[in-house]
TrEMBL record, chain A:
InterPro entries: Ribosomal_uL15/eL18, Ribosomal_uL15/eL18_sf, Ribosomal_uL15_bac-type. This is Large ribosomal subunit protein uL15m. Residues 94-173 form the Large ribosomal subunit protein uL15/eL18 domain. Belongs to the universal ribosomal protein uL15 family. PANTHER family: 50S RIBOSOMAL PROTEIN L15, LARGE RIBOSOMAL SUBUNIT PROTEIN UL15M.
TrEMBL record, chain B:
GO terms for molecular function: peptidyl-tRNA hydrolase activity; translation release factor activity, codon nonspecific. Pfam families: RF-1. PROSITE patterns: RF_PROK_I. The gene is LOC108666447. GO terms for biological process: mitochondrial translational termination. It comes from the Eukaryota. Keywords: Hydrolase. GO terms for cellular component: mitochondrial large ribosomal subunit. It is an enzyme of class 3 (hydrolase). This is Large ribosomal subunit protein mL62. Its EC number is 3.1.1.29. The keyword Cytoplasm does not apply. Residues 73-89 form the Prokaryotic-type class I peptide chain release factors domain. Belongs to the prokaryotic/mitochondrial release factor family. Mitochondrion-specific ribosomal protein mL62 subfamily.
Amino acid sequence: MSSSHGTVKALQMLRRLPRIKLNNLISIPGSTKKSQRGRGIHGGKDHGWGTKGPKHHNRHVPAGYEGGEMTPYFLRYPVQKWAKERYDISYVPLTLQSLQLMVDTGRLDVSVPIDVTQLYNTGLLRIDSRLEHGGVMLEEKGMDCFCTPMNLEVQYASEAAIAAVEKAGGTITTAYYDPYSLTAALKPVEFFKKGQVIPRRFLPPQRHIEYYSDPRNRGYLADPALIEEQRLLLSQKYGYVLPDLEKSLMKELLFQRKDPRQVFYGLEPGWIVNLADKVILKPTDPQLKEYYSS
Amino acid sequence: MISRSLLCLRITPSILRSFSTSQTHQNFKSGISLDKLYSSPLQSTDVKPTIPSNETAFGGYIPLDEVDISYMRSSGPGGQHVNKVNTKVDVRFLLKDAKWLPESMKENIMKKHSHMVTPSGYIIVRSDKTRTQQLNLADALDKLRAQLYSTVERPPVRPDHYTIEVHRRRAEKATRERLREKRIKSDVRQFRGAQ
């Protein structure tokens, strides 16, 4: 055989063979060894299956199985529709029915912007950031009888609930509070008594930024221009004439919004509220000022 | 989710709403306030989204004050609740008096889709799908919009060259396979019987 015969053959093969892809790769024959059931002496007796138990008795055991007494860990907790992970934030439900009842019985003052602070201070909601509560979610039960115009800020709202609030002549925003800011917002007086600095509210975690930037959810990070468009679309979908907020008597109230970094209306992050001396202490250091206003 | 018929609502919003905070509350603006995130300028004149006119073609907008909406009790099981609560929704309007529909569309409906119109000239849509009045209203309007859109004639979609070629190749391959199977079967049959 000439020395070039192999080369020529190889080149000819190369011309006709397909490209190397994942589906036509194999290991060098003889390099891998198939594992088999051990037959006899040291592979013998239990043959790799241990003593008794479902595996030894040839009963399929699903992954995560805990023996049957306990529900598997990954199945114990419900998954909510906004959840991107199994153990995501949970929200305390608030129906439109209970909201209307609070207003009618005088437990909620509608002449101020209603945020999670106001709702918690009615005493009718149990919100605790230690229980992974992110805040309040608005549900549509009672949407037929909801008729109060208000400036509402919640942490999650269904589409029908948003429609009901806007139909009544109010505005609704969904805003995120990180656990520390939420604790401060729920019990402001206790927080001020501790003498702690008003925190700069964190942005939502990456998986929830999309929700809060979406005008359909009236997110606090969404473009106000697109929110207007969505208001009109929603009014067409749910069948009501969109109230003109410009001509409303509550115009100034309805357009009040918190800055994305703000926890309390009228107070900036970085301030310390001294209730005893009735003073507000503001930072003077330029670095601190820059941090709190960023 | 907003249904497909609603997404066809052609709006041209020139939208600038100023979220002006009132004088009593301080105007705290952090690094991520809305005016820094979005370039829409906060001007004094607020312009609302313009409501589309349905003069030339139906854009999906239904003016709700020009349509009669009435509520009544729903049918079906439900005990005291279904007997007392008006959850069924009836949406109707007189077709010839509807100024919000283009004339061409009205003529088209009377000519080709006259089954939609009652003898007295009304278009009626009803819904008692859900337990809530408001959701039933949404359903009724959705149905009405879809009904009106279905009368709009769209030109037939002709497939492009690529699609035609793909279909031709598929048909050819199917024929080839069929003939191959036929030949194989024929061979099998031939070898049966006396050798």
